[in-house]
Specification:
6-stranded mixed beta sheet, about 575 residues, alpha/beta, about 65% helix, 4-stranded antiparallel beta sheet, elongated
């Protein structure tokens, strides 16, 4: 797990190495200074040796300045290493998500992925910065101070060693109890982000139904749950501070009592005693060790918190995309013919099939209508064509080749989809349309907009094709958004075009003009039109009627009217509805 995480350090290995190197240098100087202070007291002040005082004092000042410089450099490189590590880690997470298939994405909620890319990475960044600096500084300071303390008086130094097991036992207790709580905290973060995102995305619905109070209650409940978990975790974590203080003060009292005896004994047996300067140094080393033990405890708590974040990050990095290229993928799609051979499909390996035993043979350039009731798997069947999902059973062939044998990027470049949920990104109309072809000229853009019947309303905007589209396309109507998405798909010049109920928000006249433009301008492109209106598909070469995930019928409009009860019933009800409206 740690090895996979550290792979994101990459070009920041040097700062990650220099930071602890400067820290060790800083620690060595800080350990030497108390020794010089002891000599200053014993051989300078006690003996009133002014030259020695001046010389030692200047040396101490120089060493302190050097320690300050090394500390500043250590801080600089630690910050650079941690920020760079976090940058790479976010990139690696984002690239992993980009490679996910729909089935992979289904395993993680959007809010959860956002939390992992933000809060979790920040926690890991903070922990990493403390590790490359403080986690090296504190152990080094404790070890060096312990060595110097034993060098001065081994019996007094034993006091420190006796306190370490007490602290270790306390840390282990806190860690074992706090870690499961922090795991729940980050799951609650996911819920909180989900509620906020859902509320902001559907703010118009919330306001139109006057459900602000209901949304406030939902947020208040999750926020309260998070508060409760944090309080519970902090009650455990806060034990760390009194534990450290108890150990520090107990060590100070015991050491002072033992040292006092040695100082008194030094009047009779100097070789077994302790000088005032040595006592001052021992006290300094005690404080250095105790303060750095406290710093270690803070690092320990940070690691407890970040461990949950690390596990959640690794979960994303370890997720293997369900869809991948074969050993020798096909790099060219011959034509837009599509064939389903005994295709069945279920989501996430479920035993319940959404599609069952689908057999279809569609020629290149045909226009295929797809109709069926809600839940009949109209969207699912077309998502198998560009390999957004793989068939659970059977084969889907495009251009006579199994879609699993194609290079995924090559296949998807030849299949353009306009999904039910049309998405536009923040930017100008031109920038949005060039998602279809980043090298498209202005004339290419205008041509596809004319085909999609979008040119008329674009020309009415003050900035025309340079009009800025807000995130999600909130400043254009549903019908305008659909037509822009159709134009974007056409700009790919695909061999297969899939319109998944993507003209539902336009009037029947515009819908008819779009279909007419398709027939005249892109006759060689295979077109799949999923629709609720019979009028949107009646001119298609053939129409698929889906019922319960099975192909109930497949034929022309006239054939289905004569032979298929479902199609005839839908046609009659819509024709009757049209007559009533008229």
């Amino acid at each position: 797990m740690i090895k996979k995480l550290l792979a994101s350090v990459r070009e920041f290995k040097l700062p990650s190495f220099l930071a602890p190197l400067f820290v060790v240098g800083e620690v060595v100087i800080e350990v030497i200074v108390p020794l010089l202070m002891a000599d200053l007291i014993d051989f300078g002040i006690m003996e009133t040796n002014l030259p020695y005082i001046y010389k030692t004092g200047v040396l101490i000042v120089v060493l302190c300045l050097a320690s300050l410089a090394l500390g500043a450099l250590a801080g600089k490189y630690a910050a650079k290493a941690a920020a760079g590590f976090a940058k790479n880690l976010r990139q690696d997470l984002y690239y992993s998500v980009q490679k996910f298939s729909f089935s992979n994405i289904d395993k993680f909620s959007t809010s959860s992925l956002v939390t992992r890319l933000t809060t979790d990475v920040t926690n890991v960044q903070n922990a990493y910065m403390m590790i490359v600096r403080t986690a090296f500084r504190s152990p080094a300071m404790i070890i060096f101070s312990m060595v110097m303390a034993f060098r001065i008086n081994a019996k007094v130094a034993l006091v420190f060693l006796c306190m370490i097991p007490v602290l270790a036992a306390g840390f282990l207790f806190i860690f074992s109890k706090a870690h499961p709580i922090f795991q729940k905290v980050f799951k609650t973060y996911d819920k909180l982000n989900n509620i906020v995102g859902e509320n902001l995305h559907g703010i118009r619905v919330v306001k139109s139904f006057v459900r602000e109070d209901h949304e406030d209650e939902k947020f208040k409940k999750v926020s309260g749950d998070m508060y409760g978990l944090f309080v519970k975790a902090e009650k455990l974590v806060i034990i760390n501070m009194p534990l450290m203080q108890a150990v520090i003060y107990a060590s100070m009292l015991i050491m002072s009592w033992i040292s006092a005896k040695f100082i008194v004994a030094s009047h009779n047996m100097p070789e077994l005693g302790m000088t005032t300067g040595q006592f001052t140094s021992m006290f300094t080393y005690l404080m250095q060790m105790m303060m750095n033990l406290m710093m270690l405890s803070m690092i320990f708590m940070m690691i407890v918190i970040s461990r949950s974040s690390v596990e959640r990050i690794i979960e994303v990095l370890d997720e293997t995309p369900d869809l991948a290229n074969g050993e020798d993928p096909v790099m060219t799609v011959k034509d837009g013919s599509v064939k389903f051979e005994g295709v069945s499909f279920s989501y996430n390996g479920s035993d319940k099939y959404c599609l069952s035993d689908v057999n279809l043979d569609i020629k290149s350039g045909e226009t295929i209508g797809v109709i069926g009731g809600t839940g009949s798997s109209k969207s699912t069947i077309v998502q198998l064509i560009p390999r957004l999902y793989d068939a659970t059973k059977g084969r889907v062939l495009v251009g006579g080749i199994d879609v699993r044998d194609y290079d995924i990027e090559t296949l998807r470049n030849e299949v353009a989809m306009v999904l039910q949920k049309n998405v536009l990104f923040s930017g100008t109309i031109k920038e949005n349309l060039r998602w279809g072809d980043e090298n498209a000229t202005d004339e290419d853009i205008k041509r596809v907009c004319r085909l999609a019947q979008a040119d008329s309303f674009i020309e009415q905007f003050p900035d025309k094709y340079d009009t800025y589209i807000e995130q999600g396309g909130t400043n254009v109507s549903g019908g305008q958004k659909q037509r822009l998405c159709i134009a974007r798909a056409l700009l790919k010049k695909p061999k297969i075009l899939i319109l998944d109920d993507s003209t539902s928000a336009v009037d029947t006249k515009t819908d008819s003009l779009i279909r007419k433009a398709f027939a005249e301008e892109i006759p060689d492109t295979t077109k799949f039109i999923i629709a609720q209106r019979i009028s949107s598909v009646e001119d298609a070469d053939r129409i698929i009627v889906l019922d319960g995930g099975r192909v109930n019928a497949f034929g022309t409009h006239e054939e289905l009217l004569k032979t298929n009860a479902i199609y005839r019933e839908v046609y009659t009800s819509q024709a009757k509805g049209g007559d009533d409206d008229e």
